[in-house]
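Lab notes, practical 5.
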Amino acid sequence: MRELAVSTITDTVAGMCEEANIYLGEDVSGALKRSLEVEESPTGKEVLKQLIDNLEIAKNEQIPICQDTGFAVFFVELGQEVHLTGGTLEEAINAGVKKGYTEGYLRKSIVEDPLYDRKNTGDNTPAVIYTAIVPGDKVKIAFAPKGGGSENMSAVKMLKPADGEEGLIDFVVNHVKTAGPNPCPPIVVGVGIGGTFDKVAVQAKKALFRPVGQPHPDSRFAALENKILDKINDLGVGPQGFGGRVFALAVHIETFPSHIASMAAAVNINCHACRHLEKII
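Output from the prediction step:
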């Protein structure tokens, strides 16, 4: 059994909050640069160049890529041979978010009461945390600061099994078309299929943590990702909604076993600043 002080998790999370908001991963920045080669619209190309320039400014001046530094979302894999000391996992992560967002001068966007008072918590907590117990003595922490504009463009639909592939494609493409420029394209589209009403939404969120453009390991779903991506880009919405070929950088699908009477589907969109970071302790 390995003992791990929760203070180590707190410090790691604090650093991740700052790093993810300032440096965009090579997977996303590379996809943006490659999109210049396929964008046909002169305006679209100019917008993409500005987005790429913005990434360099953020890195060089050590400032956030976007003023919306997001809801702190974590997927944690906790090894069953790890014994945490000094507190709980949830406490440690929230302390890290508080530290990172305060010391990094990142915008605090979370309100305690979602309906009435809507008073800001002042430290961007609480985080959204999904935890899985896995074999081993390591802790893997995946973090994404999820912006409100793209998160608002989410949807869940309880499809019928008879709707099949075409029904799923129609749901995803039509929803993304309705979202239009609101989620700050070029976007990354997370799609969940299967499970329950709540589980499918988590799968769509989890899909956004995959390196951008990495295909699904099942060739059938990889082909479906490409098919949906082509249909989305054929809509002509383009970068930031100014028209063009590059509306989306990638479509990622995550699945979960389904009830015989159900085929739940969910869409979770991320903006061009598809920030995500992973650390192993």
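Observations recorded by the TA: The domain at 149-274 is CATH 3.30.1330 (60s Ribosomal Protein L30; Chain: A;). The first helix runs from residue 6 to 22.
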